[in-house]
TrEMBL record:
Record's protein name: ABC transporter permease
CDD domains: TM_PBP2 (cd06261)
Cellular localisation: Cell membrane
Superkingdom of the source species: Bacteria
Family: Belongs to the binding-protein-dependent transport system permease family.
Gene3D superfamilies membership: MetI-like (1.10.3720.10)
Species whose genome carries this gene: Dysosmobacter segnis
One GO CC term on file: plasma membrane
Length: 312
């Protein structure tokens, strides 16, 4: 119970601090959302009337208190730009970003685990070093441009900039998201392989492994049965951090592939000073970061019970 209570408290405090800092940051920066919406031709009276309608003329703490009360009742406010409830506006965007993040994470796990074990076993060592450094050096947006040109324009595997929509064509949408996910996954696969390789090599040099191999046990069985299990705890922790980083990577990649997700909406909302939308997206991202770490802790406790019971 203490573990669960501590994680819930961490989640609430993180989201509270992030939301307050976001509110304060937008309150301090220059710019007027009402003037932005009405344009340069609007009279000061019209701008002030719209500010009153939006509630922007009230103190920041009062507006934050109202937003916080609405947040705990499922009301994230109304978008300044679209004049729609924020939760209804972000629902489809959040689903797209979630699918993109999950596809990216699956790619990272499926590719990096076998590559990490192969490279730690002395195979593909030179090739691993070259590819690892190269993949980590290439930024996701550049990889996304190359993938769009190669697979989109040349091979016509998908149409760049024309995301079908999950509700209209699920198959084509997943293919589209797969190519976007590849550009997110490539540098993170390289980092995961390097981390897993160093962990496995360190584990292979421990006395219990040498003793097991000296007694005639098959090296492959020792690797998969003992070394891999003991190497999974730091790997899972690293993958938990990677889950949080994937969302940050998706912000850039969604721009390159024109994917209508949270990242693209966040950039557009910041440009248009749509504070309620930005506030909601930032809180969602903070929740995702804390949740990623919590899931990694839970998986580690299942792998290694010595870390303590989940219920403690």
């Amino acid at each position: 119970m203490r573990y669960t209570a501590r994680k819930i408290l961490t989640l609430l405090v993180t989201m509270l601090v992030v939301s307050l800092l976001t509110f304060a940051a937008f309150d301090m920066i220059s710019g007027d959302p009402a003037a932005t919406l009405l344009g340069t031709q609007a009279t000061p009276e019209k701008v002030e009337a719209l500010r009153t309608e939006m509630g922007l003329n009230r103190p920041m703490l009062v507006r934050y208190g109202e937003w916080l009360a609405g947040f705990f009742t499922g009301n994230l406010g109304v978008s300044f730009q679209y004049r729609q409830p924020v939760q209804a506006l972000l629902g489809p965007k959040m689903l797209v970003t979630l699918c993109l993040s999950l596809v990216s994470f699956v790619l990272i796990v499926v590719v990096s685990l076998p590559l990490g074990l192969l490279s730690a076993n002395g195979k593909l060592d030179g090739l691993h070093t070259f590819l690892n450094q190269f993949c980590m050096a290439v930024p996701p947006f550049f990889t996304g441009i190359l993938i769009s040109w190669c697979f989109g324009i040349c091979l016509r595997a998908f149409v760049p900039g024309d995301f079908p929509g999950l509700d209209r064509n699920l198959g084509k949408s997943l293919v589209y998201l797969f190519f976007a996910a590849v550009s997110i996954a490539i540098p993170r696969v390289a980092m995961t392989v390097r981390m897993l390789r160093s962990t496995v090599i360190s584990e292979m040099n421990k006395p219990y492994v040498r003793t097991a191999i000296a007694r005639g046990n098959d090296r492959r069985q020792v690797l998969w049965g003992h070394v891999l299990k003991n190497s999974l705890v730091p790997t899972v922790t690293f993958l938990g951090q990677t889950m949080a980083e994937i969302v940050a990577g998706s912000i850039v990649v969604e721009q390159v592939f024109s994917v209508p997700g949270l990242g693209r909406m966040l950039v557009a909302s910041i440009s248009s000073q749509d504070y309620p939308v930005v506030e909601a997206i930032v809180v969602i991202l903070a929740f995702w970061v804390v949740l990623s770490g919590t899931l990694a802790d839970l998986v580690n406790r299942c792998i290694d019970p010595r870390m303590g019971g989940i219920g403690k």
